[in-house]
Amino acid sequence: MRKSLFMYRLVFVLTLLPVTSGLFGQATFPENGVVDPRRGSYAFTNATIVKDVATTLNNATMVIKDGKIISVGTSTKVPAGVVEIDCKGKFIYPSFIDIYADYGTSLPTAQGQAGGGAGGGFFAPQQFVSNAKGPYGWNQAIKSEVDAFKVFAIDDAKAKPLREAGFGTVLSHMRDGISRGTGTVVTLGTSKENLVMLKEKASAHYSFSKGTSTQSYPGSMMGTIALLRQSFLDAQWYKQRPTEEGVNASLQAWNDNLSLPQIFDANDKWNCLRADRIGDEFGTQYILKGGGNEYQRIKEMKATNAAFIVTLNYPQAQDVEDPNEARFVSLNDMKHWEMAPANAAAFEKAGISFCLTTADLRNITQFWTNLRKAMEYGLSENKAMEALTKTPATLLGVYDKVGSLDEGKIANFIITNGPVFNEKSVIIQNWVQGEKYSVKDDAWTNIAGTYKLTVNTPAGTENYTLDVKSNSSLSMFGKDTLSTKFTYDGKSIKLSYAPMQRRQRGGGGPGGGGAFGGGQQAVQLPASATRLAGYSTGTEWNGTGTDSLGNSLTWTAVLEKAADPKPDSVKKKDPVAVGKVLYPFMPFGFEEGSQPRQENILIKNATVWTNEKEGVLQNTDVLLKNGKIAAIGKNLSDAGARVIDGTGKYVSPGIIDEHSHIAAASINEGAQVVTSEVRITDNLNPDDINIYRQLSGGVTSSHILHGSANVIGGQTQLIKLRWGANAEDLKFKNWDGQIKFALGENVKRSASTQGNTRYPDTRMGVEQVLIDAFTRAKDYKKAWDDYNTEKDKLVKAKKSLTALVMPRRDLELDALVEILDRKRFITCHSYVQSEITGLIDVADKAGFKVNTFTHILEGYKVADKMLKHGANASTFSDWWAYKMEVEDAIPYNAAIMHKVGLNVAINSDDAEMARRLNQEAAKTMKYGDLTEEEAFKMVTLNPAKMLRVDDRVGSLKVGKDADVVVWSDNPLSIYAKSLYTIVDGIIYFDRAKDADMQKWVDNERTRLIRKMNGEKRSGAAVVAATPSYQIIHSCSDHGHSHGLLTIDVDNLDNQ
Amino acid sequence: MRRIFFSILLGGFFMTAFSQETVLPTPPHKGTMYIKNATIHVGNGTVINNGVIQIKDGKIEKVGTDIVIPQGDVKVIDVKGKQVYPGIILPVSNLGLVEISAIRASSDVREIGEMNPNVRSIVAYNTDSKVINTLRSQGVLMANIVPQGSFLAGSSSVVQLDAWNYQDAAVKTDGGMHLYMPSLMPRADLSRFGGGGGRFGPQQSTSTDPVKEGLNKIEELKSFFTQAKAYFAEGTHKETNLKFEAVKGLFDKSQRLYVHGNTVRQMLVALDFVKQFNFDVVIVGGSDCWQIADLLKQHNVSVILGQMHSLPTAVDDDIDQPYKSAAALQKAGVIFSISDDDPQTRGKNILFNAGTAATYGLSKEEALQAITLNAAKIMGVADKAGSIEVGKDANIVISDGDLLDMRTSKVTAALIQGREIDLTDKHKLLNDRFNKKYDLKTPTTPAKPF
Fold this sequence. Notes:
The complex is a heterodimer. Chain A is built from 27 helices and 47 strands. Chain A is α/β, with parallel strands linked by helices.
């Protein structure tokens, strides 16, 4: 068994050796045998040479020697001692460069770490520190010390398909971890690792994926971003070689790598922006590797100023013939399928510099198919060429070596039989460092033409005429019509023939012409067919054979007339039409160009709930101008304003949800008990259908909170529901930040089915975590104050600062210091009275305030203490009895706290309930007898106060933001629907228009389903319909009714 | 006399805070009682204004506008300005089986194994669950207690919510057999979501096809039913098969098959049970039922909508689709009910699930019927409950305003089988306790209404 495997390998390796072996031996290596020095000197003459996109030379000559280009030109003479290769009719191009390969550095597949990067699960067992052995950093996913050039090994099995696709050079790196170390530029030659390496450290690589790291942290997108930011800071700090850090090879490498081109595997449009923001903060411009959906936000891509690496991988058509399967495939998935091939063209149109890569292709052989598809969808030939040659070479600083055919550069080029992007053209040879690798040698010679065939059988000579069409197709004419089978592989010829069967003839007909003449494989020749085999010597073929009776024979075929080369059949086509981009790229998104705009709006004659001392005003007008409330009163008028008839309708301020988890890529960073360094704002996700659904419930602002996985969670973000905006524009501007804390069962991980190993496990431990965190924060603050004082002193005294050691910037503690400085405000998930009082005690002693207690279902028991502390309360209307700590939760909670004098809000913490928050507020009338105004303020003005934005939202008052809802009925009634939801004077939800949009979605679905079905019927490969599951984030606190197609990633372990 | 008694009771409360343990079931109703000046929402879609309900020995004897109330020592309740409803029925519930879902020891809702037709919910029903009284406060007076499971989970029973023990509580025992349909939907490809810090590795094996697996399971179940049928035809048996015995009611129609499922595929399989075995089938969940409302009607299948307050199934769906499903069923003539399976509110928002259906296409009376008479019909207790009609138990709810709108919904009194029940619950007691602490004077333990 072993032996045969070895044998196989031996044979395999031998066949790989290029014909022109021993081009240059490496000086330091001993030779086993007699040296065979050759200089590899060739002249390629009479060729069309495309030196670069701008320069094409006709009838030109290129001379190479020692793996390098000696000269290129139309008047270049062929020096003596050089092998001349006549390239008449051939095209020569610089070979392609793939900037995003893992050739020769790919990870071993079996890592023994199933679930690669597990450990993020909310209740899963945790690994707190790195498993990596050695003087490395604390986090297993930061692998800056990895150098691809040290592990790189030539792998011809992988190089061959790349060469066949036209590539000669790749940048290869270890695709593992968040910081991935350096990449190396290598050619696809097969001589020796030492010789194929053009630049050993050419780039530094980063990603948002932990890869094989088994460490729990980071367990979220925002944790990953925090880790990257902290690593930048730690590396800066490490430059001082602080003694307490000892040797940290990861940080050392991080610093060393910063001078290289920085490549970030973002893999998605929003991730591209996230990566770019990190780069901006630390003065680094990343080259961004996209995921294929960047065309959906091309303006934002352009604004990054980054160069991009564009994937040629597109989604496959799905089998959606069964309506029950099509039902669960979303419009956005189908639209993306339709539009993805236009991604590269979108980059070109936007004037963004980009490279193309084979990365992500299911198979390298798809490269040409998909590249040509990108061209059908609008990518120009020149841009494609540039993206495969000059751009990557320039980005990597190797354009002096590869990327064009210029004197002195490495002899990396491809020879084709036509313009390279033409559909019928093929790559004949790929020369790497001056060595020839055959791709399709048989295409070198165009054998098409008319030949005279003479067959010498024992019975005599037979003459035929051969009409050779291609390397696999000819027609043969003699006395009788003949069926044939023909192949030509560049050298050998095989031809079989037999008189055509009557049946075949009859079945052929006019349409079947190809079937007899074409020598198509489908033709079954009888066993008695005459078989010829031979060799081509150019215009003459000679060989032997066996006739129908088994007699040996010889034969000769001589070219009589070469066929005229046919022009490429592919005509220049108009780019394929695709639909318009939607903002956001979702059903109910706005088509490009039809996004709603800010308007002046006059709502006439409505019942107006102001939330101000005016209370409820009857038959009143509200005027919105320039995104603000301009006037409230009777008989208002404004020329040019859109008028909404409010007769019989109600107008109120927009609803504000104090506790929401929508519109974010991750919510819980649960891998540590204190994660104040993570920020929701780093990973907002504008493509969340729940933004739109909640607008339909009158919500205009939502406070997006970190989950409750840990005692000190992440920094929160207040957003406005600007459906269609990007992440930056979702944010509520000029807002004091808040931060999520949590107490009780979730932070002690009581629901863990595998036991909890993370401190704390009791409410006693929770208190100690808080005391410890704020003690550290105070010490940290003092260390910085001392440092700054000392620095000022030295600066004043004009003394050297070199001896002064800067403290380590700690993002975690920075956030806590902000709390102490009253620049950041706490909203704390809490339930039972002991923990509420406990936190107040800790806060009072440490000198900070708890701004808001959220959930706070036992708040009614300690409302007086909360009031004294100065806290707000944000609670559920009527939840209880789903876990131990809500056993004493009562629906009268909000009313009691309100009556005691607290500022109280009702929140959703649930993407469904958020669209009925008005009804949740109304429950305080049912439970606790609050008035309508008191009740409605619980979801408008009161949350605005606790979010510290009541100067701008929460009530209808002249000068405040035009965040307004027009209701069909009393806003507290279950029968009320929002007719218009307006944010900043922009109508984002219009119930009448919503019906039209639904129709549009249905029609668009029908169109796309038909298109996919058409694809299937036309014989294209389709994959099984894949339900478009959606990731939903939650507090991990309770259940939700989010439907069949959602996955609660923060609750996976509980499902 | 009555008033005096009431005052004593109230005084007693304020002196020694009650605990829920002292909320006692009310003894059987004897004699004749009248409710007058009532706006009667009958439960069958009609409303009687200014009507009278005559109750005798716990049963409704007369309902109408022309009932003469005799002078003398009869009890008369004047509900002028209030709304009168039949007792609300929660059609699917884990009430009394689960006290606190996160506490394993307090849960008796899910047995081990996939084929548990012989498991019976009624025997685990805890009449002292603290959740029960909070539901009565909403007007929920009856519930179908349903076991959960991963396939054939066992039988449900209908209980009334004022009882000493499960035998007292039972209204109809083992009337439903519960089948939880396999998903019949391809799994999520979690690698698609790999961006988020590498949360999902290749651990989600897709080597098995859940659709095929599910369909195979269903074939096995059909085989079980076929064998059960043969077993019953046999008459006497050498060995008794408890699992076969447990589904006997499906064949003689004393039991209904409740099929828990949401997708069209799952529901089509349910229709097959109707055709092949002639079972009475009820769909539970049914979030996609609006797509096949006509087929459901054609096969006489009824539906219990699991949770109106849900997000739409697909991002492409009408944003209000779940709210509109009830109207689609109504239009097709399907008998349907509405449930509330929200785990955080424990069924108390069933009224507002129905109210939402009224906002999105049903009339208010149709919405009410869904959680009263229709629920009773589906559970086979319409002879006793579900509407304010002659001959039925006097299960009656009195509210200050529209029961289906939280803005006005406030239950002031309720009768089960003519018995005035105590509407005290744990929430009201805690409210009172802390009203006292803060001296707020808005206690909520009910003043006895009559």
